[in-house]
Design a protein that fits this description.
The protein is of the alpha+beta class. The protein has seven helices and seven strands, in the order E-E-E-H-H-E-E-E-E-H-H-H-H-H. The chain has a seven-stranded mixed β-sheet, sandwiched between helices.
Length: 358
């Protein structure tokens, strides 16, 4: 374990965070692992364990140390239950952790809090995928769970390693704030990409080459519904933590930080609502545009039909096989009929042009 000398008086108030920091690359990350961070007022250490069919020997925290265990890809119920046995985690919590579809929520189990959350990311194919993230927050421990490597907390662990003074002496409430803040900040990246997609479709709304634009708008509308369906209950979680102060673990200075996370969540909801309204208006505008273009095409077809109607009447009259039709014997009758038809065409074109039908 690496010992760090006592922190000077100028300890940073918090670990620096950036809303635009993307997730870390997970191509070479182990599919199943346990990452441990131990710290107290004057000690700091980090350990990484590969998890297989058997549990690795995890370092036990010393007295006064805060223990953060980050579980990645531990999806075996028996293995997870055995790992969490020292912390007295309820079997219903373990059942929720193994679930792939959990609505964001917070539950109080007296000795610890259980928080379920969801995060999203866009794939290279443009599909919005979701992943579950779970937190268990106790007096001297924080347990976080992901069902696969996401690279969500890698930057946070790296910041702790590079600047451990930012976390030394902090309680579990502050560590939980850092994790919750990172989850909310990840939504800013997703929402930025969502807004970029909305703007791209808005710019190409009236271009003829976008034959599938209505499908793209519908997908954006569906993505907005999914994001909002997650952010709304997540807002309620932060409201209970920061505003109402329902839980004893979060009190004092930690509630100030959590109110900032709550404000970020509200900002996300407001931005998402504005983008969703824009998507809905784009759908209405696109349907109106298509209807207007169809009307223009029908107007052109109507003009062509009206032009050919008198010509059809003339050709129909002189196409009848009667013997007594004097015009058939005129020397210039054919040219006179062609001239009459031409005059009708020109006259109708002038009429429609003045009426702005062409």
């Amino acid at each position: 374990m690496m010992n760090t000398p006592p922190a000077p008086e100028t300890i940073p108030a918090e670990i620096p965070q950036d809303q635009t920091v993307p997730r870390s690359n997970t191509d070479n990350a182990p599919r199943s692992a346990i990452h441990q961070t131990l710290y107290s007022a004057d000690t700091f250490a980090q350990h990484d364990y590969l998890a297989g069919k058997k549990l690795p020997d995890i370092a036990r925290p010393q007295a006064g140390q805060t223990n953060w265990l980050h579980f990645v890809g531990i999806n075996d119920a028996a293995l997870l239950k055995h790992t969490l046995e020292p912390y007295g985690i309820h079997e219903l919590v373990i059942e929720d952790i193994l679930s792939r579809k959990q609505r964001p929520k917070i539950e109080d189990y007296d000795n610890y809090l259980f928080i379920a959350a969801q995060v999203y990311h866009y794939t290279a194919a443009g599909k919005l995928n979701s992943d579950q993230v779970y937190l268990i927050i106790g007096k001297d421990f924080v347990l976080s769970f992901q069902q696969k490597p996401l690279g969500l907390f890698s930057q946070l662990r790296r910041q702790m390693s590079e600047n451990p003074r930012g976390i030394l002496g902090k309680n579990t409430a502050f560590l939980a704030y850092c994790l919750l803040d990172r989850i909310v900040d990840d939504y800013f990246i997703v929402l930025e990409e969502y807004n970029n997609r909305v703007e791209a479709i808005d710019k190409s709304l009236f271009k003829d080459e976008n034959s599938d634009i209505l499908g793209k708008i519908h997908r954006l509308k569906r993505d907005a519904v999914r994001l909002r369906r997650t952010l709304l209950p997540l807002r309620d979680v932060f409201y209970q933590l920061a505003v109402r102060g329902d839980f004893a673990i979060f009190e004092g200075e930690s509630t100030v930080y959590l109110r900032d996370v709550y404000d970020h969540n509200m900002q996300l909801l407001e931005s998402l609502d504005a983008s969703r309204d824009m998507v809905l208006s784009m759908m209405d505008i696109y349907l109106s545009f298509q209807s207007n273009r169809m009307n223009q095409q029908m107007r052109v077809l109507t003009v062509i039909t009206i032009i050919f109607m008198p010509l059809t009447v003339i050709t129909g009259i002189y196409g009848m096989n009667f013997d007594n039709m004097p015009e058939l014997h005129w020397h210039y009758g054919y040219f006179m009929v062609l001239g009459l038809m031409l005059c009708i065409i020109v006259g109708l074109l002038i009429f429609f042009s003045r009426r702005k039908w062409l």
